[in-house]
Amino acid sequence: MTEDNRGYFVTFEGIEGSGKSTVARAVLERFLQAGLECIITREPGGNEISEKIRELLLDPANTSISPRSELLLYMASRAQLVGEVIGPALESGTSVLCDRFIDASVAYQGWARGLGEDVVADLNSFAVAGTVPDRTYLLDLEVGDGFERGPDRREAEGQRSRDRLELEKRAFHEKVREGYLRIASREPGRVAVIDASRPLEEVIEAVLRNLRVLRGLKKL
Which domains does the chain have, with CATH numbers? Predict the structure, then answer.
C-alpha cells in the first residue's frame, strides 16, 4: 500500500460539550454518502480491550486513579486502538475519523494535570508507532458554554450521569482548553481551530468545507 492509497486520518478534539462527537458522526455520514470508505471510532475505546479501559477511566467512582496511572491507561487504550482498528483501516485505504486522540492526552494530562507536554508527547509517540492524524479539528468553545450543553449531550448519548472527567472543577477544564489552544498554535498546519459556539450546522459545514479544500473532496 503506497502513501497515496492510504486512508485519510481525521481527529476531532475539544473540551466537554464542544460537540465533537456529533460533528464527527455528521462528517462520517457525508463520507459514506459520497461513496468513500470511512469508519469512525473513539478514545478511549473503539475495541473490546480499550472499551474496558474506558470504563475504568470514566467511572466516577474511581476517584483514586492517580494522574500518572490515568495517563498510562489512556496510552494503553490508544496503542490497542491503533494496532487493532486505526492502523489496519488506514493501510487498507479506508479513512478514519476519531473522536479524540493524541492531543487529548497532551491537553488533559500533559497540561491540565501538569504531567508535562513533552512527557506525554514521548509516550504518544511510543503508543501510536507513527500513526498520526493528517488533520485535526479543534472545536473551540468557552468552558461555560460547554457546561451548559452537557445535559443535552449526555441525554443524546444515553449517558445518565457525568463521568469522572466531567466532574472535574471548572478550573481544570479551563486548563484543558488552554492546552488545546497551545497545541493549535504550535501546529497550525495540522490543527484547524473551528468556532464551536456557532449553530451545529455551521460547525459541520466549516469542517466539510475545509476537507473539500484540503483533500479536493468535492463530493462531501
Answer: 3-215 (3.40.50.300)
